[in-house]
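Handout, section 3.2

Students often ask what a structure token actually looks like in practice. Rather than define it abstractly, here is a full record for Histidine protein methyltransferase 1 homolog. The first block is the sequence as you would receive it.
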Amino acid sequence: MTFQFNFTIEGDLGNELSLLREGALTLDSSQELVSETQKREQKNKKCSTEQFDLSQDHLWEHKSVENAATSQDTDRLFNAANSARNLEPHEKQPCLRVAKEHAIPKDLKKMLENKVIETLPGLQHVNISVVKTVLLKENLPGENIVSKSFSSHSDLITGVYEGGLKIWECTFDLLAYFTKAKVKFAGKKVLDLGCGSGLLGIIAFTGGAKEIHFQDYNSLVIDEVTLPNVVANSTLADEESDVSEPEMKRCRKLKVAQELYKCRFFSGEWSEFCKLVLSEKLFVKYDLILTSETIYNPDYYSTLHETFLSLLNKNGCVLLASKAHYFGVGGGVHLFQNFVEERDVFQAKTLEIIDEGLKRFIIEITFKYPS
Ligand SMILES: C[S@@+](CC[C@H](N)C(=O)[O-])C[C@H]1O[C@@H](n2cnc3c(N)ncnc32)[C@H](O)[C@@H]1O
């Protein structure tokens, strides 16, 4: 399924793309476009089971001890959800893109090279158009999602690219809600699920969260956007200022590293991500799951629900922001709320309705029976 909306070719990227990848793209030929689409559909059917190396050596060690998840709790709730489940016969399971953890590179400054930093109130983020242009020029091996997204004129290519190379509208709604409702992050373990740029998790990070995990479907999004954004919002930005003494520099670097140590980064499909984190013996469930524009595809509802179920602390909550309806894909707030109600594990409460342009919602999801 290819979902097209809100897609703009920033600046001259479209032209640049044709020049850069002459012959490799199918923008101008409708005949070829069809065959590309068919190829992609066939590929989607097979499902990407791309294996990633998880080189644990390079990962910074994380140890959590409190509130470790018990498999019994999770099993009980899974069963409750499963028995209430009434899957439509046509419901497709999402592709199982294997999850991996992304190590934080040692050379933090290098991550911000070739990046243009933009500023929002209380936040910095890389300019994504520049990231895309550089990626197209470099033609790096691995996930080729930038050119795939261009050639299909789409922000979403099911099972291939799930939209992380863009800051979606509801992220801004949730950011505004954090301020308005004075949401507290201090001391909490937070997950930015389907993070893309990671702005929600970054606010939790700068707001004193104890631990913040970022998850995106696409590996490239984590490496090229999420990680640089987190680094740009750490104290690294002023690392060099007024510090000439090697010893002071060393201390400063250590401080930045200690701060970033609170953040972990994951890519991969949701059920695979769950498997990966739950395989850690001392995994601690999240107090807060932040998620924006992740309920567009009804085929993913069951996995998303199970992700909440297996990763959310009993007394925790999910703050979800979404458009009322996603034309072309079929998902939306009411469909997802009905899905949640039928499973009878969580309760969903509307916190805010933003009724300008396309109607948007902020929803809080908590366990119905927390004890
Ligand atoms: C439309 S984008 C929204 C990005 C970001 N939250 C924002 O608001 O700007 C949807 C995000 O959900 C993630 N996502 C969607 N479906 C997924 C799935 N089945 N497994 C893992 N991640 C998924 C993608 O990685 C993507 O970043």
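Discussion prompt for tutorial groups: The chain has one domain: 56-145+163-367. How would you have guessed this from the sequence alone?
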